[in-house]
Amino acid sequence: MKRILSICLAMAMVCCFFVNITAQAVTFTPSFDINSSAGLLINLDTDEVIYQKNSDTQYMPGSLVQIMEAVVVLENCNNLSMRITADEALYDSFRNSEYADDLRYADILNHDILTVEELLYALMLTSSCEAAVLLANQFGNGSIPNFVQMMNDKAAELGCTQTTFTNVTGEYDPGQKTTANDLALITKYALKLGRFETIACSDYFRPTSPNPERHDEEWVWTHSNLMTQENSTHYMENVRGIKTANLSMQGRNIITKASRDGNNFLVILLAAPFEDGEGNLQYYHMDDAKALFEWVFEHFSFRTLLSDNTELGQVTVNNSEGANYVLVKPEKAFGTLWYDQADETSIVQEIDLKENVTAPVKKGEVLGTVKLKFSGEEIAEVNLIATSGVELSKMKYYAALVKHFPKTPWFTRAILFSILIGLIYIALCVYAHIQYLQRKKAAPIHLRPNSSAARKEARKADAEERREKPEKPYQAMKPIKKK
Length: 483
Description:
alpha+beta; Beta-lactamase; 3 domains; seven-stranded mixed sheet; 12 helices; 22% strand
């Protein structure tokens, strides 16, 4: 009951701390060094990288490629109970391999009949090369190279920029390469699929399908991750699956997960040596995984690094009714897994607030951001919001309009428009005057009444007209007779 309660509390804390917050990965360095050439420790609940070493360096994945094979099968199979009959002719692709020691078998014989799900158990628990080619042939439409291309296409879709697959068994091939970061993308995606985690994190599995050539012996597949086996010296409580791989030309690889107090972590380790300096066989990949899990469980806990009740500054508000500023605070509290040996007081807050804010301002309106940084690395970016609302003063608003209108683009446009209209008017007047002068100059003299020559000519014409029409003699008016 206590365990269930602790898990619920941890999930509630995560939901509270990480809503509407942009969180970045901040890595810490343990007091020890790992033997693996590359390593990655991730909090699966928050997707934070806690520790990394050469996580972008390419290595051969070995049979870790079968995680991607399982992804492609699960996404292309509608019925995990579908039966597949083993065909040993497909085994020719790896039977004479130059690196036979790198291959692992699940004792699947010719004509054995197994379901897709059973073959996935063989693939994930034992790295079965038989299951790998049978599944690839089935879901690659009879072509294993075609299935490998499907794996590469899926890797590209997931954003794996440094991954190339060339085979499904995981045998040595310099062209088959990936990184810890890319494997993290693939594994986190796989864990979201329906049956993957159940299969990949099982300690053992007994197939029950009919197998004509199988004898009466018990047929059990045990997970190759010794950290899950209680009788192993590498056993660690709460560790589960997911996949191991060995390459004689490179070293040991492992991807595994562990949980405690509701916190879930994923470890990816690549190219761990097979032997120590004296030639003794070692399982450094599991030793490294155990050391990283113990380190994170012992030294990390959730801490509130930013409270949502902390006032972090004020923003000037123009045209406000009353106070001309408003206080700001974080939109949400921010908490994260924090290393107990890292000084919280060394966290730097970089605050960026808006300028020239004009009323009205609503309570909760975003007015800036605060970035949390530790040792130069960004931890998170949180919005800063107004703690209260600010009303608009209409008097200040209209006064501001009058005051600032000459500084606005509209004022400049109005001036330019007025000048343009004036120039057009002047141009029209000049044009009309020119047209008038041109018409006046082209008209006959008798049509120009204002000239002296025209006036003399008119008087002469009137005199001529009077001479041609003599005046009538005067006749007296006859008197009107009265009746």
